[in-house]
Amino acid sequence: MQNLAFNEVWRQRLGPEYDDFMQALKRGARLSLRVNTLKLRPEEFLRISPFPLAPVPWCLEGWIILEGEQKAGRHPYHAAGLYYIQDPATMAAAGLLDPQPGEWVLDLCASPGGKASHLAARMENEGVLVANEVNPRRASVLAFNLERMGVTNAIILNERAETLAARWAGLFDRVLVDAPCSGEAVLARDPGAFRAWSKDLLKRFARRQLELLYHASHLVRPGGWLLYATCSFSPEENEGVISRFLEKRSDFILVDPSRHPLFSPGRPEWIEGGDPQLKWAVRLWPHLAPGHGHFYALLKHQGEGYVLRRRNKSYLSLEAEKLYEEFCRHNLKELPATEGLIEKGGQIYRTPLPLEMWKGLKVVRPGWWLGRIYKGRFQPDHALALGIKAEKALRVKDLPLDSAELKAYLRGEWLEGGFKDGPVGDAGEEWVLVTVGGFPLGWARSVAGGLKSLYPRHFRAAWGTA
Fold first, then answer.
1. Residue 419 pLDDT > 80
2. Smaller CB count within 10 Å for the chain: N or C?
3. DSSP-derived secondary structure for 113-139
4. What is the rounded distance in angstroms from the CA atom of residue 69 to the CA atom of residue 50?
5. pLDDT in tens, 103-139
6. Could you tell me which residues are beta bridge partners of residue 155?
7. The domain that contains 419 carries what CATH number?
């Protein structure tokens, strides 16, 4: 890794730690996963884990993969959303922000969805999670990942921070700003980005980061919390941004969080006139702790405030409501969602926010995608399968791990033999929830003595072609 300016800056800052730091950057971090507690408890996953694991010190759900890393993203348990492949340093965000069930939480720069799905899990899918991503292509990736993880309390937006600040001032209990940055923690993955590193580049990022943080602060209610994060080490993007923000927003204070022994302090001495309280920021270094590294600053909006939140209601037509309820009677043991039901372009969602609060915004998904009305019937979406428990379905087909049937289903192939277990409904076609180890993978239809796989086409390529 050669960039003389980068090397010299960090040699001066870190002194005797410099060589270990550079070796850690070159080496990179081991692949890690976070168990999805919306699906199962960490101890349950340990009993079925296909990989040997070591714990992430500051995250009970986090585990370092010791062997078989190359298989982690192509395992049926990954497809079922039992875990998210996530760097240990990024797992600290949910613990520091500490969202509670029932709260209203915003992840302002949410793609690809690791931190957002972690927030949803800590919220137990209760309350409101707004996952925003300004880049349209990355917003689609975010939607797919939240779907796979069984997140049902999120609305996904593709909006600018200033638009949300003007629309939703003081609305949220907690806001996360995982700001775009120079990505110094992962420069080893991108030699071109490493060669392009410069002081001018840091200044450009810092200007945008301060702007984002300032807009985000308007979204936090009095008494609420704001977490700033980067995967950069440079103080220009970290302590410098926080210092300048606090000069502009004296109604926010930097908080000294409960910190793990591997959480290093901020470095106020690296910026001109740095306030000693900047040491309350959290630094994760790749040569001192697992992961690629990260910076966090936890801020509290002073004062106390209560936000009057409107009761959510449904906006389905009578016909759509009838078809949705009819499908549930024939295929599920209960209605998976009853409030906040809306129809948008023939698609039915359960939105966590009242319609009037997000109408006019750039919405990728207004909520949990339940299904669509097609040819006078309700057809369930993949997100509905991934968002419910297997015991809620009337007909379940569990496919053994490593079986030919399971691989065929994931490739979208026909399964011989039909559906023989469970009650037969009186609908014209029977929907079957396909599971692995008791965890939902998706839908199939029982027709003509076999099962037609309805695993989404855009996910099949990872498993080969039919």
1. no
2. C
3. -HHHHHHHHHTTT-SEEEEE-SSHHHH
4. 10
5. 999 999 999 999 999 999 999 999 999 999 999 999 9
6. 130
7. 3.10.450.720
Q: Tell me which DSSP letter residue 258 carries.
A: -
Catalytic residues: 231
Nearest C-alpha neighbor of 282 from the set 300, 262, 301: 262
In contact, 275 and 288? CB cutoff 8 Å: no
Residue 391 has pLDDT above 60, yes or no: yes
- DSSP β-ladder status, 377-380 and 264-265: unpaired
Taking only Cα atoms into account, the Rg of the chain, rounded to an integer number of angstroms, comes to: 24
Number of Cβ atoms within 10 Å of the Cβ of 217: 22
Phi, psi of 178 (to 5 degrees): -90, 85
User: Each residue of 226-280: pLDDT tens digit?
Assistant: 999 999 999 999 999 999 999 999 999 999 998 899 999 999 999 999 999 999 9
| CA diameter of the chain | 75
Pairing label, strands 414-416, 450-453: antiparallel
What's the rounded Cα separation, in Å, for the pair 223 and 14? Answer: 37
Residue at which a domain ends, from 301, 320, 350: 301
Give the mean pLDDT of the chain.
Answer: 93
Shared-domain flag, residues 93 and 205: yes
Cα 167 from chain centre = 23
Q: Which residues fall within 8 angstroms of residue 237, CB to CB, at 6 or more apart? A: 179, 181, 182, 202, 205, 206, 209, 230, 295
Backbone angles phi, psi at 158, to 5 degrees: -130, 70
Residue range(s) defining the domain that contains residue 97 = 4-29+87-301
Q: Phi first, then psi: what are they for 394, rounded to 5°?
A: -75, -30
| 3-state DSSP assignment of residue 263 | coil
Q: What angle do CA 225, 226, 228 make, to 5 degrees?
A: 150
151-157: average pLDDT: 98
CATH number for the domain that contains residue 222: 3.40.50.150
- For residue 332, the tally of other CB atoms under 10 A from its CB is 18
Task: Give the C-alpha separation, 247 to 252, whole Å.
Answer: 9
- When divided into structural domains, the chain yields a total of 2
- Nearest alpha carbon to residue 442 among 81, 39, 75, 117: 81
Q: How many CB atoms lie within 10 A of CB 201?
A: 15
pLDDT tens for 312-365 read 888 899 999 999 999 999 999 999 999 999 998 899 999 999 999 999 999 999
Residue 318 CA to residue 311 CA, distance in Å, equals 21
AA letter at 32 = S
Q: CA-CA distance, 146 to 369, in Å (whole number)? A: 11
